[in-house]
Input
Amino acid sequence: MYSSFLIKYGEIGIKGNNRHVFEDALCRRIREALKPLDGEFDIKKERGRIYVNCSGDWHYDETVTRLSRVFGIVGICPVVVLEASNFEALREGVVAYIGEEYPNSTASFKVKARRVNKSFEMKSMEIDAELGGAILEAYPSMHVDVHNPDILIDIEIREFIYVYSKIIPGPGGMPVGTGGSATLLLSGGIDSPVAGWMVAKRGVTLDAVYFHAPPYTSERAKQKVVDLAKEIAVYTGPIKLHIVNFTDIQLYIYDTCPHEELTIIMRRYMMRIAEHFAKENHSMGLVTGESIGQVASQTMQSLMTTNAVCTLPVYRPLIAFDKNDIVAKAKEIGTYETSILPYEDCCTIFVAKHPVTKPNLKTIEHSEMHLKEKIDDLFKEAIDTTEVIYVR
Ligand code: ATP
Ligand code: MG
Output
C-alpha cells in the first residue's frame, strides 16, 4: 500500500540560516542508512519536508527499522501516494486506505487536508468535510472528533496526493555530522557504548579508541569491541576504531608504581593516548562512560585526577546515571547482549586489591615521575603500533 515515507524532524536548532545544513545532513544520513537495503530510495527535500520514495524490491519493515535509527528523525510517516486529479478519485483512494490500515475500527478521526496545488477542484475545508462524510458512510463504526481524534488523517494535495495518518517514532536528536566530532574511549563494558551513542545522538561524529593488553586480554575481547563499534555504527555511520596495544605500558606501571595507584595512573595514560589520536583526527573532545562513584576510579577525586592530564574537554554523558538506567539504555539501543559477553578487560587484569578511592594529584604525579626512564618510548611505541579499523 505504501510507497513513500514523510520524515518529521525536530525544530530545535534548525531555524534560520542553518536549516539547510541540518536538512542536507539528514538526507545524507538517510541515504547512507538505506544504502545496504534492496530496492531504490529517492530522498527528496521539498518545501521544508523530507520524503523517502521507495521503489523496486524494497521491504517495509527493514526500511522502517533503518530509518528509526537515524538521529534527527522525530517521526516516520508511511505515506500512500494517490495519482488522483479529482475529488472522486481522492475519495476512493482514502476510503480504501482507511479500510486497509484500520480494519473494523471504532476509533475517532479527523481529516486535515492541505491544498498546495491550487488547481485542484475543491478547497481544503470542503475536502475535510466531504472526505469525513465519505469515511463515516463507508465505516459507520468510526466517528468524527475534531478536537482530540484517535486518528488524524493528513492529506496533502500537490502534483500527487499524499495521505498519511501514522507516525512511527524516530530516535530524535540531530543528524550525525552537524555537531563536530569526538573520540570515544570504547571498552567492552556496558557503559561506554551507551555514552558514545548519546553524544552521537546530538549530531557528533565518533572515532573510538580501545586499549587491549595481549596476551592478558584475548582476540575475542578485541572482537567484542569491534562488534560493539559495529552496533553503534548502525546509528552513527562509519567509526574509525584505534586499537592500542597497552600491555607494555601497563606492565611498566605495574612494576614501577604503588599498586593501589595502578588504575588511576593507567587511566591517565589511556586519556593521554586517546587525546593524541583525538588531536590527530581533529576531534573536539573525548567521551567516556564514567559515572560518579560507580567504581574506585570514578569518585570525584579520581575523576579530577584523571581529568588533569587532558587538554581537550572530556564529555561524560552518563555522569549522573545509575547503573540500572545505563543497562536499560544499552538494551534499548541493542548493545547490551554484546557488552555482557564474559571476555576479560585490560582494567580487570591489572587491578589492585585496595585501589585508592581519594587519590591526591600531587602524589600521583610524584609516582609517575618513576616512569620517566621508559615511558616516552613506550608511549611512542603504543602509538606507532596502533591498529586502525574502519567499522561500518
Ligand atoms: P564500561 O562499562 O564502559 O567498561 P566501566 O564501568 O567498566 O565502564 P572503567 O573500567 O572504570 O568503567 O572505565 C571507565 C571508562 O573508561 C569507560 O567507560 C571507557 O570510556 C574507558 N575505558 C575503560 N577501559 C577501557 C579500554 N580498555 N579501552 C578504552 N576505553 C576504556
Ligand atoms: Mg570497562
Remarks:
- Residues 262-280 form the longest helix (19 residues).
